[in-house]
Amino acid sequence: MKNNKQNRFLILLAAICFYSCKTTGQFTGSSNLTILIVDEKGCGVRDCALTLSNFNKEEHGVTNENGLCIFNNVPSGEYKLAGSKKGYKKMKTENFNYISKGEVFCFELYSCSFVFDEVEKLYEQCNFQKSLELLDEIVCDKKSSLYAAICFYKAYGYYLQKNQKSALTELNRMKKADKTFEEIYKEFITRIEIPDNENEKEEAL
User: Fold this and answer.
1) CA-based diameter of the chain, in Å?
2) Is pLDDT at 31 greater than 70 in this prediction?
3) C-alpha dist (Å) from residue 129 to 111, 157, 165
4) Is the Cα torsion angle 156, 157, 162, 163 positive or negative in sign?
5) pLDDT value of position 37
6) How far is it, in rounded angstroms, from Cα 100 to Cα 33?
7) What gap in Å lies between CA 20 and CA 37, rounded to an integer?
8) 29, 52, 185, 192: which has the fewest Cβ within 10 Å?
9) If DSSP codes are grouped into helix, strand and coil, which group holds residue 50?
10) What's the confidence (pLDDT) of residue 5?
11) Which pTM does this prediction carry?
């Protein structure tokens, strides 16, 4: 029920944004700048750290429970926005022109589950380079189950490429990041044919 209310709120906000963009003209001086961060499903992303910058200064903010962040007294002009949140793909730096009062700027931030789905599709297409780049863009702690999952996906990608050494490296990183992945490590390691001395070297890293 809460998600439905949130979705209705975001749809209403988008409609207001569209109307304001059509009815307000270019302004001079300063006004409050509203940023909306949504995920791949169109739901607001809370606690996303944002950095708004131009040639003169840099400001920081965090989105609220609806994915909104308001920067106060922002002069009209060209800006860059960067953002990140653990468990999501790092947002690329976005360039935009703030010229209309009341305009709401909406940007997407993709969840790790969405990225994993995309990686699996890329594996089916044998597009391994792009899949590895996507996995590297997920924001997380090196000592977390999410990082272990990322390492597993990388290991599987290398395995599909028959790159046993790189697959082993990622498996060992996975095991060190989260001990609960130990059984997955044991099952997967039997598929990789690699000399024992190489395995020992990787374990020591």
Assistant:
1) 70
2) yes
3) 20, 9, 17
4) negative
5) 98
6) 10
7) 18
8) 29
9) strand
10) 54
11) 0.78
Identify whether the C-beta of residue 96 lies closer than 8 Å to the C-beta of residue 76. Answer: no
Which tokens belong to 146? Answer: 């999410």
Measured CA to CA, the distance from residue 35 to residue 144 in angstroms comes to 30
DSSP 8-class letter at 162: T
Statement: residue 199 has pLDDT above 80? no
CB of 18 within 8 A of CB of 10?
no
Q: What is the pLDDT of residues 153-196, one digit of tens each?
A: 999 999 999 999 999 999 999 999 998 888 888 888 887 765 44
Q: How far apart are CA 199 and CA 29, in angstroms?
A: 63
Rounded CA-CA distance 71/33 in Å is: 5
Tens digit of each residue's pLDDT (9 = 90 or more) over 112-149: 999 999 999 999 999 999 999 999 999 999 999 999 99
Q: What is the DSSP letter of 90?
A: P
Please name which of 19, 72, 24, 63 lies closest in space to residue 44, comparing C-alpha atoms. 63
